Amino acid sequence: MEDWAGRYLGELKTQRQLSAHTIAAYRRDLAELRELAGHDDWAALTHADMRRFAARLHAGGQEPRSIARKLSGWRGFYGWLSRQIALPANPVEGVRAPRRPKTLPKALPVDAAVQLLEANRHGHPEPDELCNRAMFELLYSSGLRVSELAGLDLAYTQSEGSSSLGWYDAQAGEVVVTGKGNKMRRVPVGGPAREALAAWLAVRPPAVDGSAALFLSKRGSRVSPRVVQQRLKTHALQAGSPVHVHPHVLRHSFASHLLQSSGDLRAVQELLGHASITSTQVYTALDFQHLAAVYDRAHPRAKAK
What we know:
The protein has helices at about 1-15, 20-35, 45-60, 65-80, 110-120, 125-140, 145-150, 190-205, 225-240, 245-260, 265-270, 275-280, 280-300; strands at about 160, 160-165, 165-170, 175-180, 185-190. By secondary structure, the protein is mainly alpha-helical. The protein has a three-stranded antiparallel β-sheet, with no helix packed on it. The chain has a two-stranded antiparallel sheet with strand order 1-2. β1 (about 160) and β2 form a beta hairpin. The chain is elongated and about 70 Å long. The mean pLDDT is about 85. Its main location: cytoplasm. Belongs to the 'phage' integrase family. XerC subfamily. Keywords: Cell cycle, Cell division, Chromosome partition, Cytoplasm, DNA integration, DNA recombination, DNA-binding. InterPro entries: CB, DNA_brk_join_enz, Integrase-like_cat_sf, Integrase_catalytic, Integrase_recombinase_N, Integrase_SAM-like_N, Recomb_XerC, Tyrosine_recombinase_XerC/XerD.
């Protein structure tokens, strides 16, 4: 068993030229498989054994994602071993990790979202602050993905075979974005976001590369999704937010608050750019949580004596 594992890891290093970190991860996974197998030979392990091993890992508290990675590594090892010796089948083929429990997206309460956007304001903001304010307001106002926000142009542009994938239509009060599956959609922009965008555009310097990017980094180039994440995180910490806030939290908050007010799931689906209503239905659970919390606070017979 040690010999087969050593040869396999050696080939990963010399032939596939994997990094030392990756090789070490494969070594740990094979060592764990050896421990689970006990004295059984590699070739003697069966599909049922692998399912039992996955169940033991899960019972031991390992996350489904971690178990899935280990199964993938074991599957690759047995694929290699089957080319060295005769095996009835790859015993890991078809073995799946336990399903990850569905977690609800995090959304801020309405008051917390408003307080976050209103925080850290003073009389004479710098251009970077105006840029941040416009980005954060737009994320919450229109429920954009951070990649969609970063890809926005000042207006629709077209040149030499390329054209804008997203842009701000100030006259219509809308943004046009291209989401997943190259699906284009128009999303309204709320009043505070339009005001924040106007303030930013009044001081926006020309982009260093001459692009029409709506939002710029400190270097004057198009802002990246990572920079948006970092700026929002810093803003939330300075605002004293008790939870970690990232751009998707504002997207979730947009969807949850809109659904609470309108109850129109199809409209929320269209505004978010979801291809399937199933993806949007998760917000109905958030809506129920909100209603349940209101009930617990307000109904005189909600709590047991």
